[in-house]
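Fold this sequence, please.
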Amino acid sequence: MIDGDAAFEPALPPQVVADLGERLRGYYSHLMSEPVPDRFIQLLEKMDRGEKAGHGG
């Protein structure tokens, strides 16, 4: 955000965007095969129960 303009989006050349995407996918690809920690599952379930009860914001 520059000068309070929330609509500002930096323009990157398409090849830079593609390269960044490939690098990020490669870097984080191992996470997709990892199991979700039990604590995260518990937190997600707690949040889901809160939303169903009308406390989701």
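The longest helix spans residues 14-28. The radius of gyration is 19 Å.
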